[in-house]
């Protein structure tokens, strides 16, 4: 029987998940006021948890050897790693500190967080590719009289992607490991595997009798999915089979990645009520508002006057008068209405606060138009000029129109278009999050 592993994302998810969390953070910064306060607080807590997990990396598979005093965990640890890695300061047979075997580079932040000391870390040389990303932990004895040792076990066990419970023929039915750890791990859905170690000390057939009794105990506790493997770390019997289970755990991925994804899914469900179903905000036609504001600013009238001067019908091109606030505010509100069509009302308020105010938009238009480099327009002279007055008039009018529209477009882009794009993107990012299923 083999343990059943969680179906979690493929290795190399740290960057992809971090990008998703970063998009969520940016979206909340841009549009926090559109989200109910309780949901906003929940999402921000989610971002904090995800940042913490991702800072450690979610591409590591944590496998923990857990068991009681004298079960042979450390001997099994050495057999699996192919080393005689010794933990300094440990008086056998008690394991007092967590040790770690790392099968690839870069696990230091994770090991720091797990509380594994530098002197208790072993980098496996020439690790097989199928175990790349594995962190194998040898935990302190769960039945230690030292409360600090039990605290390490209690903290690390929920973080493991696979827990290998190591028992020996004498204490395999120990109530402490069954009630305090194995049952709890099963309730939380953690893949577990039980190893009956030291089978070399048993007579023929005795190991299978103990295995049957172990499976009976597990069945009575409702732990039907926890397999039992006979093994002797001292002689090597069953070690290769256990290594194959380690490879299976690595291939399945990490609980940390699944935890981040689960947090993002939960955040999406919480955000759903702040969004409108099937809404797809559209950017209003910017050419339309540019043309309207240019007309209100007198650009069209100036272009017409320039054409008249160039054709000989007029004498001068008048300066532009300042555009009025009321006219600009009407155009601004029309833009906001169109940009938030179909969205909840709170998003209209957010967009109205994000784009430039009416006063800011008016001041920017008057400043940009006042600083524009308008083309010089001259009356026609001589017979050639009089013959080409129609062409000259059209060219002068188009030139003035282009300068005026370009000036207005610069203001509209910075004051309206770019802020609207940010809010729309925030909405889409949040909406995408609500559609995550796993």
UniProtKB/TrEMBL annotation:
<dbReference type="GO" id="GO:0005525">
    <property type="term" value="F:GTP binding"/>
</dbReference>
<dbReference type="Pfam" id="PF01926">
    <property type="entry name" value="MMR_HSR1"/>
</dbReference>
<dbReference type="GO" id="GO:0019843">
    <property type="term" value="F:rRNA binding"/>
</dbReference>
<protein>
    <submittedName>
        <fullName>GTPase</fullName>
    </submittedName>
</protein>
<dbReference type="InterPro" id="IPR006073">
    <property type="entry name" value="GTP-bd"/>
</dbReference>
<dbReference type="InterPro" id="IPR027417">
    <property type="entry name" value="P-loop_NTPase"/>
</dbReference>
<feature type="domain" description="G">
    <location>
        <begin position="63"/>
        <end position="197"/>
    </location>
</feature>
<dbReference type="InterPro" id="IPR005662">
    <property type="entry name" value="GTPase_Era-like"/>
</dbReference>
<dbReference type="GO" id="GO:0005829">
    <property type="term" value="C:cytosol"/>
</dbReference>
<dbReference type="GO" id="GO:0043024">
    <property type="term" value="F:ribosomal small subunit binding"/>
</dbReference>
<dbReference type="GO" id="GO:0000028">
    <property type="term" value="P:ribosomal small subunit assembly"/>
</dbReference>
């Amino acid at each position: 029987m083999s343990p059943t592993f969680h179906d979690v994302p493929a290795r190399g998810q740290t960057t992809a998940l971090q990008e998703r969390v970063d998009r969520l953070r940016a979206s909340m910064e841009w549009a926090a006021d559109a989200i109910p306060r309780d949901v906003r607080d929940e999402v921000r807590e989610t971002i904090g948890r995800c940042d913490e997990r991702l800072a450690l990396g979610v591409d590591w598979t944590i496998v923990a050897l857990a068991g009681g005093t004298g079960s042979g965990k450390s001997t099994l640890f050495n057999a699996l790693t192919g080393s005689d890695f010794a933990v300094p300061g440990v008086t056998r047979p008690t394991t007092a500190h967590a040790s770690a075997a790392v099968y690839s580079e870069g696990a230091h932040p994770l090991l720091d967080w797990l509380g594994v000391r530098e002197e208790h870390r072993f980098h496996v040389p020439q690790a097989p590719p199928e175990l790349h990303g594995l962190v194998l932990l040898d935990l302190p004895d769960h039945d230690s009289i030292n409360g600090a040792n039990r605290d390490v076990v209690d903290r690390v066990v929920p973080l493991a992607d696979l827990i290998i419970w190591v028992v020996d023929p004498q204490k395999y039915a120990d109530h402490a490991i069954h009630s305090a750890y194995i049952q709890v791990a099963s309730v939380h859905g953690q893949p577990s595997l039980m190893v009956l170690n030291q089978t070399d000390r048993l007579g023929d057939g005795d190991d299978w009798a103990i295995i049957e009794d172990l499976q009976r105990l597990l069945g009575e506790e409702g732990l039907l999915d926890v397999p039992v493997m006979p093994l002797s770390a001292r002689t090597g019997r069953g070690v290769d089979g256990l290594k194959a289970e380690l490879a299976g755990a690595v291939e399945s991925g990490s609980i940390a990645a699944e935890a981040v994804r689960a947090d993002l899914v939960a955040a999406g469900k919480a955000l759903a009520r702040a969004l409108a179903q099937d809404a797809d905000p559209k950017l209003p036609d910017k050419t339309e508002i540019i043309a309207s504001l240019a007309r209100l600013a007198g650009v069209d009238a100036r272009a017409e006057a320039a054409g008249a001067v160039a054709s000989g019908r007029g004498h001068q091109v008048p300066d532009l008068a300042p555009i009025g606030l009321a006219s600009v505010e009407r155009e601004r509100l029309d833009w906001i209405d169109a940009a938030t069509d179909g969205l909840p009302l709170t998003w209209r308020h957010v967009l109205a606060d994000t784009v430039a105010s009416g006063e800011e938009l008016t001041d920017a238009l008057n400043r940009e138009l006042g600083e524009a480099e308008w083309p010089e327009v001259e009356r026609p002279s001589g017979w050639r000029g009089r013959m080409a007055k129609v062409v000259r008039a059209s060219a002068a009018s188009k030139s003035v129109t282009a300068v005026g529209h370009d000036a207005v477009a610069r203001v509209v882009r910075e004051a309206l278009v770019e802020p609207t794009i940010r809010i729309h993107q925030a909405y889409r990012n949040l909406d995408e999050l609500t559609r995550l299923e796993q």
